[in-house]
Write a structure and sequence with these properties.
By secondary structure, this protein is of the alpha/beta class. The protein contains eight helices and nine strands.
């Protein structure tokens, strides 16, 4: 998979993409991520990529021209094929869920646009963007952190990225349930013991216990999720 990211502050993405599982995915050649500074398509020699909004009001707006040029130039680079989705990370987008991430992990090439200031000119959203995603009902300083979250969520699902490829299948939300409790050594810590069923060696009973725990935890902590 190949992911292009357009950003006003590309350095914010350096650390999340260069460590742990995302680094492993790229080192294995399973994922390629390229971050493009929007200012290389600026409208003037001063690096301008934003302007005041029509109608007045506080805050600047990312301009049409730099974004349109960036999208069109990157789209013309056929080495990785056409974009399957052009995604704008925005608080008013569709809320990111595991089923959405599962679907995106099957794509070949994605373009992510990181917003800043008061957002991007609406005409870019109308004529270029194919999918708008929010990672939650709150506002951040820019779209770089949401982009990093999305790339991480997608990248870990790619075959060969995780050492145990079945691990991702049992994550929270994969079946609209929260994950069950997990335990490791020692069996007894300060009198707090691992449930006997997990020590039984009976995998059928263990699977049943885990499913029951997932149901209980979901209904207690995220009842709306359990109703799905």
């Amino acid at each position: 998979m190949h992911i292009d990211i357009i950003s006003v502050l590309p350095e914010l993405l350096d650390s999340p993409l260069q460590h742990s599982i995302m680094k492993r995915a790229q080192d294995k050649g399973l994922l390629t991520v390229k971050v493009h500074p929007l200012r290389q398509w600026a409208v003037n020699e001063y690096g301008q990529i934003d302007d005041y909004q029509y109608g007045g009001g506080a805050g600047m707006v990312m301009m049409c021209e730099p974004l349109a040029k960036a999208i069109e130039e990157l789209s013309s680079q056929t080495e990785y094929g056409a974009f399957d989705e052009i995604i704008f990370l925005t608080p008013d987008g569709k809320k990111m869920e595991q089923s959405m991430v599962n679907g995106l992990s099957l794509k070949k090439r994605l373009l992510l646009i990181c917003g800043h200031y008061k957002g991007i000119d609406e005409r870019i959203r109308e004529h270029f963007v194919t999918l708008e995603i929010s990672i939650g009902d709150y506002v951040l300083s820019g779209g770089e952190l949401p982009a990093a979250v999305l790339v991480d969520a997608i990248g870990r699902l790619l075959p060969g990225v995780l050492n145990d490829e079945t691990s991702a299948l049992f994550d929270s939300f994969q079946d609209d349930l929260l994950a069950p409790p997990v335990y490791t050594r020692p069996v007894d810590f300060r009198g707090w013991k691992v449930p006997d069923v997990l020590m039984s060696g009976d995998h059928r009973k263990i699977d049943e216990w885990r499913h029951e725990q997932s149901l209980t935890r979901t209904m207690q902590r995220r009842p709306g999720l359990g109703e799905k």
